[in-house]
Amino acid sequence: MSGVSQTRIALRNCGVIDPESINDYIATDGYDALAKAIFTLTPDDVVDIVKKSGLRGRGGAGFPTGIKWETAKKSQSDVKYVLCNADEGDPGAFMDRSVLEGDPHSVLEAMALCGYAIGASQGIIYVRAEYPLAVKRLQIAIDQATDLGLLGENILGSSFSFSLRLYFGAGAFVCGEETSLMNSVQGGRGEPRIKPPFPAVAGLWNKPTNINNVETYANIAPIIRNGWEWFRKFGTEKSPGTKVFALAGKVNNVGLVEVPMGTPLRSIIEGIGGGIRNGRRYKAVQTGGPSGGCIPAEHLDTPIDYESLISLGSMMGSGGMIVMDEDDCMVNIAKFYLTFTAEESCGKCTPCRIGNKRLLEILDRITEGEGTDNDLEELDILGNIIKDTALCGLGQSSPNPAISTLRFFRDEYTAHVKDKRCPAGSCKKLIGFKILADKCTGCTVCARNCPANCISGSIKKVHVIDQEKCIKCGACLEKCRFKAIVRG
Amino acid sequence: MAQETAEQRASYPEIDKFYDSLPDKNGALIPVLHKAQEAYGFLSQDVQLYVAHKLGIPASKVYGVATFYSLFNLEKKGSYRVNVCLGTACFVRGSENILNEFEKELGVERSATTKDGLFTIGSIRCVGACGLAPVVMVNDKVYGRVAPEDVKGIVDEYLGKGGE
Fold first, then answer.
1. Given pLDDT bands bounded at 50, 70 and 90, which one contains residue A202?
2. What's the gap in Å between the CA of B157 and the closest CA on chain A?
3. Which of A213, A430, B35, B81 is deepest in the core (most CB within 10 A)?
4. Fold of the domain built from segment(s) B6-68
5. CB contact under 8 A, B126 and A189
6. CB A444 within 8 A of CB A437
7. pLDDT tens string A134-185
8. A81-86 and A209-213: which strand pairing?
């Protein structure tokens, strides 16, 4: 699977330029697009180029960016805002962090372009306080751009003014949802509200607001500079351009990859990712973080775009891609995500606050070996009710990990419920270890390494595990050199 | 919450200085709480009351915001905050075992502080260092590819230093 190539648009400068030097950015055509727009394009032209490029929001749902800009432009108001969602909260995703730390000016330039297009003179970057280096580099970038007259009053001597400031999040996953984020910027609890009105009509302080995520903005300057036709050469008809994925988990090569939309999952995992670590077998790839699902081997040749991932019960999300192998229990993974969403639910709407809690309880029961057939049915029904009735994107997608694993890995659920067995050997209540008498040499290594002191036996005699005291840590299995200890 | 006294009101100069310097007072609550926590370590009841008074908003609103966001602490934390990443990439590479190991090594449960006030054990959700999974942070220092047997060494590194 060699020869899988990456195409870097959003990450074009990451690792190439010094992110703390504006001159480096300018030397790679930085702020060219802004100058071009201010002096040769009307705001309508800019919106038109973004619209025709077909760029879709890289933060999750894939809403067309040009339509957002057009709506914000058409909204009449004395004050408008440009917001950047840099609150990358998906566990297992670090694309935005990389852009912010490696190429902060690309975000600044795009926000200024957006300000020019929609008629806004103020921008705010909502950035995670957990990313101190990103915060530092953004501030340096803003100061440098302001010093050079690329931000602030009368940019490049024109009549266009645009200023930027940072706002720090305080650790709430739901703030990745745009209306929550705006409530947070207003100093309140980050709770979402019903849309419409959309932020482009009534957003921050009730003023028209354009909000995009970091990676979306990182695509803007090259599009304005090179034209929409250029951008459409990459990717697919419905999902043009590239997408950055954070490849992690059980693959040999972990890290960020940027590939054209439409690239098959297999090329990323087996080609760029170099396959599964330690010679284990691939089981699933999880995309879309807590809002996404797990995709099994039979769908590895699916080309990645917004629609195909949704048809597999997952979603693009922000681009997390966690690869799992045969040792990962799919029920436990679903429980892991539900634990996360149940904790991060803001509590405003009932389906999310109570529904996810109930889903988690069901998954808890199943992994503890107390699940019933009825639980599997309930999981599916309740999950779909939550999806249909929750207020915001968090709740509407939170059952996806459970629903998708139930769809593709039902046999694992059944093994937990019917046979009280965890095929991956990861649910502690459902596994055990035993020593094979014919293989045990009585070397005592297992007994010495057992943290619970529950293995007895003397030198050169067969050892025995006290199942009552065993904490099922697996230390004995790892240490035994004679393959005398097995699960079961 | 108790009625604040004039003395309490005058005892948080950092909050005064920060708030008074803000050009735009709209949406100031979260930045002020960040500042207060940085200056005073955690958001005590007194600090919250003081912020409410300073911003002219109900104390219930301050409490509502302080409890909504996970970065705000309402209790004093240890000098060394051990945070094990429980993000997905770290989770599938066994960070749960590392968290258990820290609990065992320090003799306290997660989100609790050791009796000597040195360590608080906690978990975080992804610091975006998934390439280094599993990751542990002690205050601002990041430890990558941590194995359970590394835990004792990490703890010892700080035991020698004493408190802050």
1. very high
2. 23
3. A213
4. Arc Repressor Mutant, subunit A (1.10.10)
5. no
6. no
7. 999 999 999 999 999 999 999 999 999 999 999 999 999 999 999 999 999 9
8. parallel
